[in-house]
Write a structure and sequence with these properties.
heterodimer; A: alpha+beta; Beta Polymerase, domain 2; 2 domains; four-stranded mixed sheet; 39% helix; B: 164 residues; alpha/beta; globular; disordered C terminus; binds iron/sulfur cluster
Chain lengths: 519, 164
């Protein structure tokens, strides 16, 4: 292909620019050696590891994603079909973050990560007698009768006065389930280890052999708070596979919906963080603003949380002039409210005392882990797909990157405040220049197998989707990656050294998804 | 500080009037104070977002005498979301066993009612009734806060709960 721009530092890997977003492509690797070598090259060229997943029949494979400034690179390593539990080289020796992903692939598919020393199960909890996705879709999966997830061998800290606090999976409050194991001396946390997987719903298995529209409904339910982001990543992946580009109006409306999701979540988080620091005022004020926004969503888009609004080929609702005027008015009111509340937060000594120097994730550590999203940006990692790669409409009204450098709760609060403001001015530009639009077009049919990728900047960070289509719109396999899977290990690093009582506050300032992690 | 107080003053009271606030119906056997223990049995977290909304000033659940409690031992109602994943079955059973009688169980959301979109997956039981008896079901994906208030109201009921 002529219009490819080979990057000099990445031999054999080049991307085609795209109108609808980030340049992205799949790169099949012939042997485990080239897979390993390319992963090392991408890692050392400043690439951020974004996830690793497997797929089974008809061609077993491992896919590994890296995000570079150039775009998204996904290495695909086909595995031998005849071997019952084929092996693949583990990346965790030089990418520690790959650990949980490779254990997930081992739990679900039975593929063996060679070189991975950690033999503990991850999302599978040893619940099944055979890896569930090694069986064809729809077949019953025999249970492992000796399963007992509570026997998980957590790493223990020993010494005088050290004790252990187990928390979860059922937590005290309206929260998703997961288990935290603290090693504590006095009030101070020495070590935190997570055990997730309690919300594992078998999502990757469910995508198999479904039609595109059903897959879109599932994609919207990976993590409810990110429904627009996951739906949009899935839609992009389908559209890339079918070589279809949505109209400018559709792209603008999708971008608007994504910002509404971001604002709603940031409002909720800011209120919850303030509340956990003891300021009930925060919960009611931000709760009020979030509720106002959700009601506008229902009025203009028919759904408070925008479930099923973004579908392959388009969006479900368009806006008339009256709606646009109403949303512009909402935009101005919200901006004034946010500025006032930001001032109150800044001036509140008690809040700042709890926020500053609590749950610090040092910029060097965030860099080494390759973090992005709100957590990464609060630790000086300057990545935001909207500001970096754009595509339309981001290139027309480029949002500014919100950055903070201290990596503590205060920094994560600051990034959220800045992002709401930026998001409001970007949304205003979108509303004022909304292109004439038809809201949905029918997507083309495919006569051959096709693959595609999608990636969007959700409210937590990069949400990634991969699909493989069999002829005539049958989803053969798909995977959606919420950024939470990359951010959970960072929480384990930010908590030690803090008081046990600060854990809820730090945890809230990360606000990670369990469902999006466990899939 | 005065800015904060001024903000509270300017915001005023937003709580919306309901036909039958829970505090006035006094479900027999539960008194005026109703305690809910929530268990997420593997939801997508969409239902949790709407449960959170109940605490905002518009719905102000706690002003009606209803509160979410941290321990199942303090609960009158077990509110369950999610399709009950295999990994959460044990935790759900143990939480239910820790709730003293009289109590009720409310399944919230399509997932909790019948497994929802995840119904056929190998990893879920397909709804709360597949694991523990359920007194009331509230479908929706996710159900709205108004529907949630109504369902909580109904779950406590007007007839005395059966003692266990
Ligand atoms: S009912 Fe819908 S919103 Fe609730 S957990 Fe299930 S998929 Fe999510």
């Amino acid at each position: 292909m002529d219009n490819r721009n080979p990057s000099p530092s990445l031999p054999g890997l080049c991307l085609i620019p795209r109108e609808d977003g980030i340049p992205r492509a799949l790169f099949p690797q012939e042997t485990p050696e080239t897979y390993l070598a390319q992963a090392r090259i991408l890692g050392s060229a400043g690439g951020r590891f974004l996830g690793l997943w497997g797929a089974g029949d008809p061609q077993p494979r491992i896919c590994t994603a890296f995000l570079l400034r150039e775009g998204l690179f996904v290495l695909v390593l086909p595995l031998p079909k005849e071997t019952p539990s084929p092996s693949f080289p583990s990346l965790s020796g030089f990418i520690p973050m790959a650990n949980r992903f490779e254990r997930t692939v081992r739990d679900l598919f039975g593929f063996r990560p060679e070189g991975l020393e950690d033999t503990r199960p991850w999302v599978g909890h040893d619940l099944w007698a055979v890896p569930p996705l090694s069986l064809p879709p729809g077949s019953p999966v025999p249970e492992n009768l000796e399963a007992g997830s509570l026997d998980y061998p957590f790493v223990r800290v020993t010494g005088p006065g050290v004790h252990e606090i187990p928390v979860g999976p059922v937590h005290a409050g309206i929260i998703e389930p997961g288990h935290f194991r603290f090693q504590v001396v006095g009030e101070k946390v020495l070590r935190l280890e997570e055990l997730l997987g309690y919300t594992h719903k078998g999502v990757d298995g469910m995508f198999r052999n479904r039609d595109i529209a059903w897959g879109a409904r599932l994609a919207a339910r990976i993590s409810g708070d990110s429904t627009v982001a996951t739906s949009m990543a899935y839609a992009q992946a389908i559209e890339q596979a079918l070589d279809f580009s949505p109209a400018a109006g559709v792209r603008a409306l999708r971008a608007l919906l994504l910002e509404r999701e971001r604002i709603a979540n940031h409002l909720g988080d800011l209120g919850a963080i303030g509340n956990d620091a003891g300021l009930g005022f925060a919960l009611s004020q931000f709760g009020r603003l979030k509720e106002n926004l959700l009601r506008k969503n229902r009025q203009h888009f028919g759904a408070r949380y925008l479930f099923d609004q973004v579908t392959p080929g388009g969006v479900q609702t368009s806006l008339d002039d009256e709606a646009i005027a109403d949303l512009l008015e909402e935009n101005g009111i919200l901006l004034a409210e946010i500025l006032a509340l930001h001032k109150i937060y800044d001036d509140h000594g008690g809040l700042q005392d709890r926020f500053q120097n609590t749950g610090v994730l040092l910029p060097e550590v965030a860099h080494r882990l390759g973090l992005g999203g709100v957590v990464g940006r609060a630790s000086a990692q300057a990545w935001d797909l909207r500001a970096d790669h754009g595509g339309d409409p981001y290139r027309r009204f480029p949002p500014a990157l919100a950055l903070a450098h201290t990596g503590d709760v205060a920094a994560r609060v600051l990034v959220r405040f800045l992002e709401i403001q930026e998001s409001l001015s970007f949304s205003r530009a979108l509303l004022e220049h909304l292109p004439e639009h038809s809201i949905a077009e029918s997507i083309p049919d495919n006569s051959e197998t096709a693959e595609g990728l999608g990636i969007v900047e959700g409210f937590r960070g990069e949400v990634l989707a991969w699909v493989r289509l069999a002829p005539h719109g049958v989803v053969e396999a798909a995977h959606i990656q919420d950024p939470s899977a990359l951010l959970w290990p960072a929480l384990e690093i930010a908590v030690p050294g803090n008081l046990v009582a600060d854990f809820p506050l730090i945890n809230k300032s990360f606000n990670l998804s369990y469902s999006g992690n466990d899939l | 500080m005065w800015k904060l107080l001024l903000k509270i003053f300017r915001t005023g009271i937003l709580t919306e009037k309901r036909d039958q606030p829970l505090s006035q119906t006094h479900p027999p056997g539960f008194g005026k104070s109703l305690a809910i223990r929530h268990v997420d049995a593997g939801s997508c977290n969409g239902c949790e977002l709407e449960l959170w909304a109940l605490e905002n000033p518009y719905y102000s659940l706690s002003s009606g005498g209803v509160k979410f409690v941290a321990s199942p031992r303090h609960a009158d109602l077990l509110l369950v979301t999610g399709p009950v994943t295999r990994a959460m079955k044990e935790a759900l059973l143990r939480t239910r066993d820790a709730v003293p009688g009289p109590s009720r169980v409310l399944a919230v959301g399509d997932c909790a009612c019948n497994g929802g979109i995840f119904r056929e997956s190998y990893a879920v039981h397909g709804g709360v009734d597949a694991v523990i008896p359920v007194d009331h079901h509230l479908p929706g994906c996710p159900p709205s806060p108004d529907d949630l208030l109504e369902a909580i109201h109904q779950a406590f009921g007007t007839s005395p709960p059966s003692s266990e």
